[in-house]
Specification:
Number of domains: 2
Structural class: alpha/beta
Oligomer: single chain
CATH topology of the largest domain: Zincin-like
Number of helices: 7
Helix content: 25-40%
Largest sheet: 4 strands, mixed
Order of helices and strands: EEEEHHHEEEEHEEEHHH
CATH class of the largest domain: Alpha Beta
Length: about 250
């Protein structure tokens, strides 16, 4: 009977380890990417996720030792990550840039609603508050962003095929060649002038799928100032990810 050749079991493309930073354990995700040229340590600026990209199996095996040599750098990056804010009674969230306190109550006109006093109230059992609040903010984001998108598109004489909201890590908005516009639902925590700028940016792509002078002319037809919201996003955009952070 002919024996087949022994095959080496392929190594997992993702590995997770623990690294001690400033005396506390930090989860580290190690990814194998043959296209990488060297070991690279990354810290996500909004979530604080620590990851290492390894170009080969050999380097994968020594990735955690490599990260230990970068502990001081990792600690500095983690110190800049915004502190997470869990959604629940007592939390303060900047709904459309204005701070609102969340309070628990026994009953009301809806699971979550905003009173005339700008207090966000949530009913039901306390352990269900986070999910109810998250659903509420996503609905508010969808409603607000869709309305502004349709209004701006009408002003340019165009219309999107679809408007949706997602929980994206690196983009505030996108417009596909199929005329589908998508936004980060976290824009509901940004000031109105920032939200309007992102909407104007994506709506302008319905007419110009580029960043040419014609594109920026369309954006400025919809919003008077592009520099102020751009500066706000560069400085404060990462803070929008601190509310109900992704796990």
């Amino acid at each position: 009977m002919r024996r087949g050749k022994a095959t080496r079991k392929s190594a997992p493309l993702v590995r997770r380890e623990l690294l001690k930073i400033d005396g506390r354990p930090v989860d580290v995700t190690i990814r194998l990417n043959p296209r990488a040229r060297r070991l690279i340590v990354k810290v996500h600026p909004s979530t604080g996720e620590v990851s290492i990209v390894a170009p080969s199996q050999r380097s994968l095996d020594r990735a955690i030792e490599f990260a230990r040599g970068e502990e001081a750098w990792i600690a500095r990056q983690l110190s800049h990550v915004p502190k997470p804010v869990a959604l629940g009674p007592g939390a303060v969230v900047p709904l459309q840039g204005r701070e609102h306190v969340i309070q628990q109550c026994d009953e009301g006109p809806a699971p979550v609603w905003i009173g005339e006093d700008n207090i966000i109230r949530v009913t039901g059992r306390r352990e269900h508050a986070a999910r109810r609040l998250l659903d509420f903010f996503k609905r508010e984001a969808k409603r607000t962003l869709e309305a502004r998108t349709l209004e701006f598109a009408s002003r340019l004489g165009t219309q999107p095929k679809r408007v949706s909201v997602r929980d994206t890590a690196s983009r505030w908005g996108s417009c596909s060649v199929a005329r589908a516009i998508s936004y980060s639902w976290r824009l509901i925590f940004a000031p109105a002038f920032v939200l309007d700028y992102v909407v104007a940016h994506e709506v302008a792509h319905l007419k110009e799928m580029n960043h040419s002078p014609r594109f920026w002319k369309l954006v400025r037809e919809l919003v008077d100032d592009v520099n102020r919201p751009q500066a706000w996003l560069r400085k404060h955009g990462v803070s929008l990810h601190r509310y109900a952070p992704r796990r």
